[in-house]
UniProtKB/TrEMBL annotation:
It comes from the Bacteria. InterPro entries: F420-G6PD/mer (IPR050564), Lucif-like_OxRdatse_MSMEG_4141 (IPR019922), Luciferase-like_sf (IPR036661). Keywords: Monooxygenase, Oxidoreductase. This is Luciferase-like monooxygenase. The keyword Mitochondrion does not apply. The keyword Glycosyltransferase does not apply. The lineage of its organism: Bacteria, Bacillati, Actinomycetota, Actinomycetes, Streptosporangiales. GO terms for molecular function: monooxygenase activity; oxidoreductase activity, acting on paired donors, with incorporation or reduction of molecular oxygen.
Amino acid sequence: MTDIDVGRFGIWRSWQQTSPEFAREAEALGYGTIWLGFSPGADLGGAERLLAATDRIVIATGIVNMWATAADDVAAAYRRITEAQPGRFLLGVGIGHPEATREYQSPYDTIVSYLDRLDAGGVPVRGRVLAALGPKVLRLAAERTRGAHPYLVTPEHSRRAREILGPDALLAPEQKVVVDEDAARARATARAKIADPYLKLGNYTNNLRRLGWTDADIADDGSDALIDELAPHGDAATVAAAVTRHLDAGANHVALQPLTTNDTDPLPALRALAQALDLP
């Protein structure tokens, strides 16, 4: 299959919060992909509705949780969607976290088995990506999928991931941002979203330690330095420069997740960022 063009920048957003109206505006702003987070259901109906409401933008899952969704059901939904909307849907899958899944065991073997079932169900290697943080799963992403969709990472992770993935795999990290020039308020907004649950989940904290962050950085809801790296803040131009560091480090695409105070509408931030990033 011909690789889907995800563009250089996309949007990561909970599938429950992503309406057809939001998708149409994201498309008009020039974003290449909307990544649907928080484990979309196996029927992928939310992705289907967004595709039907738009003309160009790619819809991706970021990610379908392997423990919560049977691979055979996901494969059937994938075939249905791609037959109706060829070239516009990318299936992201991942293993989730032991803190959230009672059955969590043998994660690597589970990933391999799940990918085997997707193969059997007709999901092409180039039509899927894998949530990957550590070296072993990053290598698997390059071998068995189009590439990796890491979450809660830094440009340094993108640099290391590119070395492991090789030159051809897709690397599409998620990046939280806060478009707010008040540093204290922006940092508080970011910390409220990052500290709980993400700094309490071992897969993420272990990855941060691999990148050189210390226990002191992770403790007490995260050091200012860590929070600023995981969710850069400032005006739109400052934030745009920060997220572009992923591309400079080897990523092909960055999925932006604007964080807002009191969960207000992120579209104003996305509009400002689209202009700062000079999106088409």
